[in-house]
Amino acid sequence: MPADQTVQNAVFQIELGRGKAVLWWVVAVLGAIALALWYTASEFRGLEKREAQDMAQLARNLARGEGFTTSVIRPISLWHLTERGGWDLRDGTVRARLISQHPDLHNPPLYPLMLSGIFRLAGDQVFQSKLSDQFYAPERWLIIPFNQACLLLTLLLVYLWAKQLFDQRIALTAGLVLLLSNTLWSYSISGLPTTFLMLLVLVATYCLYRADVRLNGGDTARPVDVVAWALVGLSAVLLGLSYLTRYSSIFLLIPLTIYAARVLRGRRAVVGALIYVVIFLAVVTPWWVRNYQISHSLLGIAGYQIIATDGLLRNFEINLPGAWSMRTLASRMMQQLNSGWTDGLRNIGSDLGIFFFVVGLLYAFRRDDTSRLRRIVGGALLAGLVGLAVVGMESDPGHVTAINGGNLLVVWLPLVVVFGVAFFYLLLDRIPFQMRLTQGATIFVFGLANVAPILLTLLPPARGPYPYPPYCAPYTRLLSHWFDPDELGVSDAPWSVAWYADRRCIWLPQSPDQFVAIHDFVAPRNTQFIFLTPYMLDRRSQSEIVKGEFKPWATIVRGQVPERFPLRSVTLVPPDTDQILFAVEPRWQQRPIGLVLEGDKDKKAAPATNAVPAQLAPAAEN
Question: Model's pTM, two decimal places?
């Protein structure tokens, strides 16, 4: 072939042929990666949610070959294992295992297991860091990229799915709105398993949709199809994996089982629905067996979340009969259902396409498979509301209050946006515009209204270098310098101590007497420090500390230490000397170290080696 003809063919492919599509995909991928880097550089300051830090430390233990053992020890877990699980505290070996190899009974396993595999590939050196490092390397280079990769895969799936449901115009608009969704990117840098869960749930739903198309898709419908049945089974497996990522996903079993029955209607739908449930149970049962063998409970201590508050999880002496009464449970469920219904749209996400989705429920699409999918999405949102009402969401006074790992509604945001955009174009096509420019301006305003949150987020002023209060990783890492790996601590934010300082830590018990009981009988003479942070100290002084949940600790915070209190040395810890550290001995004097952070160089930062402060001196002398 002549050279000039070869060049002409190449130019044609780039302008009109496959080359043009490849070029657009390359630009889209590079743009998505650039946006991910920009958003991370602008907004990421470390893991800000306690669940993210908790799962990260569990994943690190898994990567080290320690199994599903946790460094975050909840007093209710100690109580459950000794009172309900058959662990005998009179046996010294059992007592030592209860602390040094405490089994995790709170978190589902799949997300930490995925992170642990990434940690293994990176090697143990990734956990080595200097005290002054602003970012903890595993967060920035492993956890966040994994979650953002899950998000981008989800967006790719939804874009291709939208093209099958509607057309290129709707798919492209929905894809851009989702790509520039501040809600989704906020979750991607949170370290929570939400984007991973979103990917699993949407792939499970997509499998059922494809089975529906194969079995009931008009001209392509067929009475028997092995591939369709395999897709239904694969969907059940993926939903089981979703449950192992987030326990509340079990509420999605109802709408997706109904969807499977609808897909298989006329082909033994009831049998198919039963098979769907059986496959789901086959996936999740091994984890239930593991929990029961350890704790005599299928869910470990996660089952207490139905009745739990932080105060219950921190309690070592529990009386539960009244908490399990139907009246108490129903009252709590109705309160949370009311709150969930009121905040439902906000929990789904910040995109305005949600309103078009809700109004569009009144419109019937011509294609039955599209209408069935939309009804399932609506049913799944209702199931998510019920799940939130039963299980609730963990209270976390961290900075990103709109981000919560227990939010089961946000996983449906991509499909909600797709159907919302479709209804927007349906209305738009019914308006007799005189000029195409006016129609284009309307689409531009719609898109701008949806992506405005991320634009406003990325504009100045920039956020501070640390999510403080309550977390400041460099100063939490000081604990790893002052205390040895085999020594045990107590903190109001044990997940932060476990993740950043790599020390085993008990969640601050409900009262000093419970702490003394744990110190004397559960972990004899091994508890070396108590670290109090703004996670507790920044609460409302009267309603939450003096008269509320932390009332038993109020006198100790003020320096009035009880006679039997075993930790007699105390100091204030930076930044701003508003963290309190109690210890058996003043390690900050025995192992001095100076630490000035990058952002503190222009001011005189309080040293981490300060002696007993004057306002707490009486406590140290008692």
Answer: 0.92
